Structures are given as structure tokens and as C-alpha cells.
């Protein structure tokens, strides 16, 4: 199998194995620490961690009370990241996220402007109920999520690195909400669907969280170590078959590229950023599973989380009761 690599300088095999083993030990410790606080929901924890390890952002979608907020705050603690939380509301303004300039006056009466940083100047930003803010406020995140800096009063201000946005969204309460624009959805590496917990996990939740004291998660790594793991993931070799599988999947999900089911049911599909996200996330999943190179199975395992928010169905498909998930499942079955 031919290995396809990025332009990053390659490590020799022994160094790669040693670095991967060290990273795998850290990832195992992270998973163990998160499990002290988040019961069950292994798939949710895995996908959210994969998004962060890949260097990207994640959108967590689920009904209230499923510990989405708790998961984000727990990851901030375990990963040793500076974290901030913004509750998105209809009256939230861009300056409430980015910051604003205020006028100061010194003892001599000289006036000058001073910039007060907003909560976006952090390493892990939790955007709670992101779809409750107006499109103007939502757009304040667009530049930050892609370019890792913001522009205020004509000046470029770099954000701390690493920088991640973990946003939550309630799929039920649509009154008073503003659907995220396609450009912003595309900047989320994954959409993580948060289901109800299974019976055993819900029993544990009842027993563990209704006593006098609740468990807390401690720090396992810091921001510098997270950046090292993210860099290692970018250096992992990817086989030609995996690259072809990613390209075939992304292109099959677009109308007008020869897939009959997609042409009939999908109005618009994923762009090149979806392929980039799949490439990074398959590497991250391989490392998460203790392997040095991703496989086609990794691509298929995370395809739904990477693609579903980058696709929209036609009106006819929605009328027939089809979903984006069913279309993706059909594409995968055909592979």
C-alpha cells in the first residue's frame, strides 16, 4: 500500500512509534479522567475528542439535560486549556464575544482608546445554544474559527493557540432561534449528535450525581502537549486507498457527480473542507484506537459526523421522510 503524506517533515519510524505510544498513553488517561464525570456516551466523548485532537471545532446537538455543557467544561479541565463560556441569546452582540474599545483619560486629560478583550480570547470557547444569537453575532465567530485571529477597529488580533470552539445546539426549540449559515456549519469539523443515555449509564447518573459531593476531573495534559499530539496526527502517513476512499465519499455526497441517489435527494453537498476534515479525523481516530495509520473503516466510522452538517436535502426528499443520515448510510453501503 502506497503511503501518502503531507508536506510536514517526516519522522523516522522508531521516533514515530515512540511518539504515538506516548500520545496513546495520554489519550487513554484523558478518556479515563473524562469517564469519571461523563457516564456512558462513549461515542459522543470519542467524536468530540477526535475533533479537538484534529485541531478542529465541534457542534454538539442534543436535547437539554444530556451533559453537553458538562462535557465541554470537563474537556477544558482535562486538557489543561484556558476556557470561557458564552451563553448565546438573541440580544448578544458581536462585541460581547470579540471585545470592544473603551476611552481612557489620563491625569493630564489626554484621551486614548484601550481594547478590552472579549471571551473569544481563550483556548477553548464554549458557545452555548449558538443558534439563539442573531446571524450578525454568529458571524463574529467565522473569521476566528478559520483564520485564528479577529479584526477589531481595523487591527488584526491573534487568538491563543490552540483555539477550539465547542458549540451546543438544541434541535427541538426552534422558536426564537436562527439556523446557522452554511459557511459557519462548514467550519465545524464534526457535528456530534448527543443521544439519550442507555439504561445502565442513566442509573449511574442517578447514583453518582445526587449525593453530597460530585466527582470532578483533573488535568491530564496541558495546551503545549495537546499541540504536540495535534502535530503528530498531521504527520501520520495515510495510505492511497484511504485517500481514494475519502475523495470518493465526499464527491459521491455532492449532486452532479454521478451518484443517482445524491442527485435525486441532495440540493447541496460537502466541499473540499469536508475532505480535509475527514483526512485529519481518520488519522486522529487511528491514533485513538492505538494504530499508526488510518484505514478505510476509520473513514466510514466518522463519515456521518463529518458530512451530515455539510449537506442539505431537496424539498421532495424531505417530504418523503428522508434524512441526511439515511442518504449518507446509502452512500456508504454502496462503497
Number of helices: 15
What's the pLDDT, averaged over the residues? Answer: 87
> Could you please say which CATH topology of the largest domain applies here?
Rossmann fold
From the alpha carbons, calculate the radius of gyration and give it in angstroms: 21 Å
Structural class: alpha/beta
In the CATH scheme, the class of the largest domain would be Alpha Beta
| End-to-end Cα distance | 19 Å
Task: Label the overall shape.
Answer: globular
Tell me the series of helices and strands, N- to C-terminal: EHHEHEHEEEHHEEEHEHHEHHEHHEHH
| CATH architecture name of the largest domain | 3-Layer(aba) Sandwich
Name of the CATH homologous superfamily of the largest domain: P-loop containing nucleotide triphosphate hydrolases
Largest sheet: 5 strands, parallel
How many domains, in number, for the residues? Answer: 2
The total count of strands amounts to 13
Task: State the share of residues found in helices, binned by percent.
Answer: 40-55%
What percent of residues are in strands?
Answer: 15-25%
The poorly predicted ranges are none
Strand order of the largest sheet: 3-6-9-2-10
Domain ATPase AAA-3: 57-190
Protein name: MoxR-like ATPase
InterPro entries: ATPase_AAA-3, CbbQ/NirQ/NorQ/GpvN, ChlI/MoxR_AAA_lid, P-loop_NTPase
EC number: 3.6.3.-
Amino acid at each position: 500500500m502506497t503511503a501518502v503524506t503531507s508536506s510536514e517533515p517526516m519522522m523516522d519510524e522508531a521516533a514515530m512509534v515512540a511518539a504515538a505510544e506516548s500520545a496513546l498513553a495520554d489519550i487513554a488517561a484523558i478518556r479515563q479522567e473524562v469517564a469519571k464525570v461523563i457516564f456512558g456516551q462513549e461515542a459522543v466523548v470519542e467524536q468530540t475528542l477526535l475533533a479537538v485532537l484534529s485541531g478542529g471545532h465541534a457542534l454538539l446537538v442534543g436535547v437539554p439535560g444530556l451533559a453537553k455543557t458538562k462535557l465541554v467544561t470537563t474537556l477544558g479541565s482535562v486538557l489543561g486549556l484556558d476556557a470561557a463560556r458564552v451563553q448565546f441569546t438573541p440580544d448578544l452582540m458581536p462585541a460581547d464575544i470579540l471585545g470592544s474599545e473603551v476611552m481612557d483619560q489620563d491625569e493630564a486629560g489626554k484621551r486614548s482608546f484601550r481594547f478590552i478583550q472579549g471571551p473569544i480570547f481563550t483556548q477553548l470557547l464554549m458557545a452555548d445554544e449558538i443558534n439563539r444569537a442573531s446571524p450578525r453575532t454568529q458571524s463574529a465567530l467565522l473569521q476566528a474559527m478559520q483564520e485564528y485571529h479577529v479584526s477589531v477597529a481595523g487591527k488584526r488580533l491573534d487568538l491563543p493557540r490552540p483555539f477550539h470552539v465547542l458549540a451546543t445546539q438544541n434541535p427541538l426549540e426552534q422558536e426564537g432561534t436562527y439556523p446557522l449559515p452554511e459557511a459557519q456549519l462548514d467550519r465545524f469539523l464534526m457535528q456530534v449528535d448527543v443521544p439519550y443515555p442507555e439504561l445502565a449509564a442513566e442509573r449511574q447518573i442517578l447514583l453518582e450525581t445526587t449525593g453530597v459531593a460530585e466527582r470532578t476531573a483533573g488535568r491530564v495534559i496541558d495546551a503545549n502537549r495537546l499541540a504536540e499530539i495535534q502535530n503528530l496526527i498531521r504527520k501520520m502517513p495515510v495510505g492511497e486507498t484511504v485517500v481514494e476512499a475519502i475523495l470518493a465519499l465526499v464527491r459521491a455526497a455532492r449532486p452532479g457527480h454521478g451518484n443517482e441517489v445524491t442527485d435525486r435527494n441532495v440540493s447541496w453537498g460537502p466541499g473540499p473542507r469536508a475532505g480535509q476534515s475527514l483526512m485529519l479525523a481518520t488519522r486522529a481516530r487511528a491514533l485513538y484506537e492505538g494504530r499508526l495509520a488510518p484505514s478505510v473503516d476509520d473513514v466510514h466510522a466518522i463519515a456521518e459526523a463529518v458530512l451530515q452538517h455539510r449537506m442539505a436535502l431537496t424539498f421532495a426528499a424531505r417530504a418523503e421522510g428522508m434524512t441526511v443520515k439515511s442518504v449518507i448510510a446509502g452512500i456508504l453501503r454502496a462503497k
